[in-house]
Amino acid sequence: RYIFLSLCDRANMSDGVLRLKSSAKELPGEVLACRFSPDCSQIAAALSNGHIQLLTTGSLQNTATLSVPGDRMPPTALRFAANSASKHLYAAYASGHVRIWHTSSSNCVSTVQVSETALTAMDCLADGSKCVVAGSDFVVHVLDLEAKQSVGTYGPGVLHRVHDMMPAPEGHTNRVFSVRCHPGQPHLVFSAGWDNTVQVWDLRTSHPVRHLYGPYVAGDAIDISADGELLTGSYRETKALQTWDSETLAPRRTLTNDAEPTWVYACQYAATAPLVAMAGAKSHELRVYGRTSNVLAGTFRDSSALYTLDIGRGPGTSLPVCAGGASRALYLFDVDGGSALL
């Protein structure tokens, strides 16, 4: 009884560099993905009931709902267009569709059928010309956002080993849950999922150029920093949050403490501060780690698993962070990006 009450008392409390600013609760579905607009004035939240809600950053007031009548297949991944003037939001769906929404009018301007199976991951090239999606078909798909059509697929094949010439799988052999475009090398795309691998694809070729075995990724849980460090979050108790050299794929650090396990669903670098954020299950926590100090700098515990997070850009050293998950709530935090804890 004492332990139960202790865990309940900690729910919805934040500490360290994390300060809970506001929350939107009792949403009409679980929060599967969330994303700040480029100017951080809005947050898009993908819900399990098939809707996308647009909320104001600050009060988290719902200003618009994006949905297709009669279609309850949920959106699973979101990205805003790099050009904020376009007011476009890209969404991948469990139906295998990618939809382009105009956020000012709430209209769906285009729908592309990418796969016959669920899409669970999305990212966009830095120049905004293409998006990359992946999911249950083990394939990485590239879409031209202006032409609104698929321009490339990168999937399982056979690659012969150098020494014994026995066939070995090339590409993914299970569902893909995260894709990330390299911020400095636009021809490189990283993908990861249930097969315990991170695949590195060169879009100028038809096969992976290297791969990493180890991370078990079950959500939007890989990222690449501006200086080329790879971050992976694994849905397991040990070595849950790790960093690697993105060129050599050599391991660098393990940030999580195995004595206080958490199963990672999402993780991300901050673009303007030396911190890493992760959200997950088991402990149901959002955690912030100092990228320089390698210490746990802030936590927030929810009553259920947190599936998703995003880090925005704020004035000065203050950074907005949003997170949500199974409790049907979206949370907004301020993070002190200038803290000595980082």
Tell me what the structure shows.
By secondary structure, the chain is mainly β. Helix content is 3%, strand content 52%. The chain has 1 helix and 31 strands. The chain has a 5-stranded antiparallel sheet, with no helix packed on it. Strands 2-31-30-29 form a 4-stranded antiparallel sheet, with no helix packed on it. The protein is globular and about 45 Å long. It starts with a helix and ends in a 6-residue tail after the last strand.
What's a concise summary of this model?
This protein is an all-beta fold and 342 residues long.
Strand order of the largest sheet: 1-28-27-26-25
Helix percentage: under 10%
From the N-terminal CA to the C-terminal CA, the straight-line distance is: 36 Å
Number of helices: 1
- Which stretches of 5+ consecutive residues score pLDDT under 50? 1-9, 158-168
Oligomer: single chain
**What is the total tally of β strands?**
31
Class from helix and strand fractions: mainly beta
Strand content: over 45%
How would you characterize the largest beta sheet?
5 strands, antiparallel
Mean pLDDT: 91
Shape: globular
CA radius of gyration is 19 Å
Describe the secondary structure blueprint for this structure.
Blueprint: H1 2-10, E1 13-16, E2 18-24, E3 31-36, E4 42-47, E5 52-56, E6 62-66, E7 75-80, E8 88-93, E9 97-102, E10 107-113, E11 119-124, E12 130-135, E13 140-144, E14 149-154, E15 157-160, E16 167-170, E17 176-181, E18 188-193, E19 197-202, E20 208-213, E21 222-224, E22 229-233, E23 241-245, E24 251-254, E25 263-269, E26 275-281, E27 285-290, E28 296-301, E29 306-311, E30 318-325, E31 330-336
Antiparallel strand pairs: 1-28, 2-31, 3-4, 4-5, 5-6, 7-8, 8-9, 9-10, 11-12, 12-13, 13-14, 15-16, 17-18, 18-19, 19-20, 21-22, 22-23, 23-24, 25-26, 26-27, 27-28, 29-30, 30-31
